[in-house]
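Chapter review: from sequence to fold.
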Amino acid sequence: MSYNIVHHTYISSCSRRISLIKQVCNRGVIKLLKRSLNKQNLTDNVSYILKKRIEAAGGAITISEYMKIVLTNQHTGYYIHREAIGELGDFITSPEISQMFGEIIAIWILNEWANQDKPENIQIVELGPGRGTLMNDILRTFKQISNDNKPLNVSLHLVEISKTMRRFQYQTLVDDNGCETQMKHILECDEVSPQIHGSHGNAVFWYHSLKDVPCEITTFYVLNEFLDALPIHAFKKINDNRYREVMIGWHDNQLAFIIAPGETPASKLLVGSNTEETRDWFEICPEAGIVIEEICKRIEGRQGAALMIDYGHLGNATETFRSFYKHELRHPLVDPGTADLTADVDFKYLLQRASPFNVGIHGPVTQRNFLYSMGIGVRLNTLLAHNSDSKLRRLLIESYKTLTESMGDRFKVLAITPPSRNNLPGFIKYDAGTNC
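The token string follows.
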């Protein structure tokens, strides 16, 4: 089979977040290589797996399979074994930048809870919870805001496959006085963890998949920089204006992007006879569509809501597949397994996948619009009024500008609610004059 090599360009982003799903790459290959993997460094291990998988596939694999092998295989996956988030990792996320971000999300959830007749019991589900910082800020804010003295019983449900990140989340959200046995249960459970008593007085559960999370009661879903790391397929227009899938193979003893010589299963399914597409290169993330459909099914006919925040576009971006290493942009095929992989979220595609369901779809709006209209400027002024320390005040202002200016337009916010919800807070056009 003959493949054509393509040159790949990529763009920069100011932030991204760990986002995990349970992906299983070729188990047969991994099982055969397990013994040899212990003798090689990380990059060599992942490259060896990739080379063998490419050979077994006849010379090329999809970008989707490449991302699964590099990010989430259980033996060498980047998200499984590395501390990816924070100053020592490869990227920083909004909750790590400022407490104000989590506080705004908490206020939004409480507002929707109040709008849905204040059910006594609710659950919050976060997909890809990072270090647990966002949930910690949300639960802290819940405690600080009065709810008309009506008790609110919140259980927390975290969808996370990385043992490394589960450990961080446990340390952030659970006060167990160093109980290693309890933590071990969380790290080793295959599907659903036992119930753990959280440090905010709430129950905490861990899951490998969203489908394992119960949905019998009112549920609020939070996806902050989760969808951008799900596996994508990329397609490039060729001379006759048809599209061919962009694959990954070996050229001159290194990984390279190549064009499939004919149709692939993904191109048949995802491109087909689409005559509306005009971009020279476009990317589709089917698994993001599956996640959105699952959330819509859960909200349809029930109470609750979902809030999705990620960097993305409205179906007009081209080559966004890229890598981040130590907070610096890097080619996605360099040293696989040592850096984060990501692609911009196509919100137009998500809207298409959500449209058949009887739910309310709001946005997307920019993160700046969402935060401004939710009152982040008021919150900043309150924090500044209660803090005289010049260093802390400077950090508060800098973090505010990062969230609303540096990340303000690049990041988009999309919400799913019951169909009757109108004039949703955060999705109403803001008045810039009311903010700092």
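Two observations follow directly from the output. Residues 7-40, 84-91 have pLDDT under 50 and may be disordered. The longest strand covers residues 304-313.
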